[in-house]
Amino acid sequence: MKLCIIGFGAVGKGVSRVISMKKEILKEKYGLDISVVAVTDRSGAAINPDGLDTDLLIETKEKTGKISEYPEYGVTDVTGIHVLNQVDYDCLIEVTPTNIDDGEPAKSHILTAMNDGKDVVTSNKGPLSLCFSELIEAANSNNSIFKYEASVGGAMPIINFAHETLAGNEISSVQGILNGTCNYILSRMANEGSPYGQTLNEAQELGIAETDPYQDVEGIDAACKIVILANSVLNMNVSLKDVQIEGISRITPESISLAKKEGFLIKLIGEASHNNLEVSPRLVREGSPFAVDGTLNVATLRTDLADDVTVAGKGAGSIETASAILSDIISIWKSSL
Amino acid sequence: MKLCIIGFGAVGKGVSRVISMKKEILKEKYGLDISVVAVTDRSGAAINPDGLDTDLLIETKEKTGKISEYPEYGVTDVTGIHVLNQVDYDCLIEVTPTNIDDGEPAKSHILTAMNDGKDVVTSNKGPLSLCFSELIEAANSNNSIFKYEASVGGAMPIINFAHETLAGNEISSVQGILNGTCNYILSRMANEGSPYGQTLNEAQELGIAETDPYQDVEGIDAACKIVILANSVLNMNVSLKDVQIEGISRITPESISLAKKEGFLIKLIGEASHNNLEVSPRLVREGSPFAVDGTLNVATLRTDLADDVTVAGKGAGSIETASAILSDIISIWKSSL
């Protein structure tokens, strides 16, 4: 299976590292022989039809910041689209940064690959939350397999869980804590009684919140995930503009301690159902599966047979997100057998 | 797909009800046409090669207590083994009561079906926790598919989750709250400060604890599940006698309130790893995924890539357990395509 990795930030490097770690086991266990034939970043690309060295890819990027510096096979002046048009590959791994304005360049990468009949795995929330049905149609009409587990909740495996593990169940809603940064800030505010601004600053110093925290703390990131879950798990046809969004920046330590006295916590909850698409701070009972601390993501699926089923896992992290991408790659490989 | 349901208590009836509910959808969505050709209980059997009426099966059992009273097709004086030897079927649904002394009669039912090359789905913890490797060998040597999701945690889908959704990950341990009765008793003791004996009595009055609560409160039921998880998820080869077991009957309200002051809860935790097979009361931090109330089951898988991943769901219930059996049936059907 020849992979083309477009984008080589934390997630792209994670994928490369995971392939290094698992190459032999995947061959043994699944008969799956992965080779990375091209990788791109802003500087250009590294291309070798016989396969690139996944360790050397990471080393090159970490030392020079540029994948185009890859020994012998590095090239400048090429874009992702060029590479997809010129290289012979089986599956695109689209892991460029999320852009929620127009979903580019990820959208074009994905559509180019699909129109060529290639399979696609992505962690990119942009195109999925802006033009989901367009992507699904392109995949279907080209017989391309399209997988995107890593786009929601990193290592919390919710999409494949809903589709495969809960087969036979009808799922009527998804609710969850879908942003680790917000959950970290709210947990610390609850445990320490500290105000929002100060807690955000501390989270930024620890690298848990980004320098520009807007999309996280205002609920945009969670809303993107709600859109993806609504479309993929509930078979809806919605986009980001359909979600009612309220973030956590106006929550006070006083409201948190008031809730606590009554046995409740305040959490940023995303909800997708056929009646409601919403991200907002809500009261959660202590002792419920949503009463988790820290950067964890949690989601509950309401089903007709199994009742409520909950999954929780790390919402972010390079290797954790790459794990979700690897499970998608394995699933594509299995369905090709 | 012709099913033979051996055992027609809460779980067997649940399976029958779920098939009634989902018959048309399964045809549409998966092209799966299920027919129940035989059902047995202690009274005898109902057998019809053209398919029994799943609603009438439930009605007959609820009205008369005997499946042998099924109109026209009811028979007495037959055992499960007779039926399996005489009826033409594709898949055995073994849902007789769990027997942890010798696993019978479930063990013989399962081996009979496998030796005949039939697929098997079971919720029965007995044979799985006493002679797992014998069953797996029989399945492998007869090319029979063997699925048992419902045997651990009812509607909490942990086994297929580990095998399919987390593909690519190596799992090093499983920890969990695997007995809903114990978790209910401990939660009420924590919330109300009530002593163990009184809380158990109340749970019995509510039908949450059984009249003979021994296997639940002394940790045997959880230990059976730990054995099944160790064998199936961690590829170990162990049985019930290998588990160190301590139940909850000696826990006092005082120890619970002492723990609470320090921010901890007391939960009955099962653990399976290559170094440890244990069921015992442990301290669990508030805000952790194990800090759940009520009859919920929760399990955390420690993985090499995805870090800790947790699933939670109803540990018992007729329809919930049947949901797990249905997902196994669908998975067998898919792999036959």
TrEMBL record, chains A, B:
Pfam families to which the protein is assigned, alphabetical: ELFV_dehydrog, Homoserine_dh
InterPro entries for the chain: Glu/Leu/Phe/Val/Trp_DH_C, HDH_cat, HDH_CS, HDH_short, NAD(P)-bd_dom_sf
Positions contributing to NADPH binding: K125
Residue span(s) of domain Homoserine dehydrogenase catalytic: 157-330
GO molecular function, one term: homoserine dehydrogenase activity
Signal sequence range: none
SUPFAM superfamilies found in the cross-reference section: Glyceraldehyde-3-phosphate dehydrogenase-like, C-terminal domain, NAD(P)-binding Rossmann-fold domains
The EC number(s) this enzyme carries: 1.1.1.3
Binding site for L-homoserine: E210
Keyword Oxidoreductase: yes
Record-annotated active site: K225
Keyword NADP attached: yes
Chain sites annotated for binding NADP(+): G7, F8, G9, A10, V11, G12
Segments forming domain Glutamate/phenylalanine/leucine/valine/L-tryptophan dehydrogenase C-terminal: 5-93
Enzyme superclass (EC): oxidoreductase
Gene Ontology BP terms: threonine biosynthetic process
Keywords, ordered alphabetically: NADP, Oxidoreductase
Stated family: Belongs to the homoserine dehydrogenase family.
Stated name of the protein: homoserine dehydrogenase
